[in-house]
Amino acid sequence: MLRELNISERSFPLVAPFRIARGVKYAADVVTVELHQAGRTGRGESVPYARYGESMASVLDEIESLRAELAAGMGRDELQLRLPPGAARNALDAAMWDLDSQLSSVPVWVQLGRPPRATLRSAITLSIDTPARMGEAAARIADAGLIKIKVDADDPAARIEAVRQAAPRAHLIVDPNESWTIEILRDLQPLLERAGVELLEQPLPADADEALLGFHSRIPICADEACHVTADLPRLRGRYQAVNIKLDKTGGLTEAWRLLRAARADGFKIMVGCMVCSSLGITPALEIAREAEFIDLDGPLWLQHDYADGVSLHDGFLLPPAPAFWGG
């Protein structure tokens, strides 16, 4: 046996409920993978997501199904063929990148031909609440620089206006999480423009976004649920102006890197996002975040207790962990 595989579940309680259009979370439930080889350990983390038909059990089963091949030394290229995009592949892909960086003494950023991980300005997310409470929350982070506003179809204008009034200088992203109709989107165009919103993330359901064809939005529209992998890009043209790359959707850094380059070549703006997760789930995404116009990697900031040596936030900037944490 070349390698040993360990799989575990972990739940990180949140500092406050995280409400979006499709529900509320009280904890970040993650799958952690460890690959042990030659005295080294590569780690990866992923978040099973019900929106994409995943559960903790299904992701654990997917990973377990490859135990023999992983023990024999399966590589990242074969992994792309054996598992579909999603949380299971993401956790394994991250662990492979981490392990390879240790065995070769070549950091991931060097393998990708990019500069070292750097301090980045990340969006700070406001989950759905009453307009007054969202305004109060925005006032507390008014100096963050970039604020992401979660909304649904219930009076989004009042929530957006409350945040804008409380944080007049912040850059804004609005994320309805598929909860709007084309009529709501059309009616809110003047408000979005007046509030200075810079990006609108997945306003319509991904399976009903044909309504965006021929619609000329005053605000760039970003595909999130509608964009998982590189093969999705052709159908996004004419509907979206940006794509949100999340490693739990692409199935890991390997495909995320391909999607980044292809989307950039197609003229899309790039957003790099995350699920609510720990620093172990965030750090691989930092390898592509430096290429993005919009960064939304505040997932660990929602946890009561993250890894002590993970990412940290200072003056609105996300500081990466030390190289030894993940990827060299």
Automatic annotation (TrEMBL):
Similarity comment: family membership: Belongs to the mandelate racemase/muconate lactonizing enzyme family.
Co-factor: note: Binds 1 Mg(2+) ion per subunit.
Organism annotation: Rhodanobacter spathiphylli B39
The protein's name: Dipeptide epimerase
SUPFAM superfamilies assigned: Enolase C-terminal domain-like, Enolase N-terminal domain-like
Active site location: K150, K246
InterPro entries: DgoD-like, Dipeptide_epimerase, Enolase-like_C_sf, Enolase-like_N, Enolase_C-like, Mandel_Rmase/mucon_lact_enz_CS, Mandelate_racemase_C, Mandelate_racemase_N_dom
Organism domain of life: Bacteria
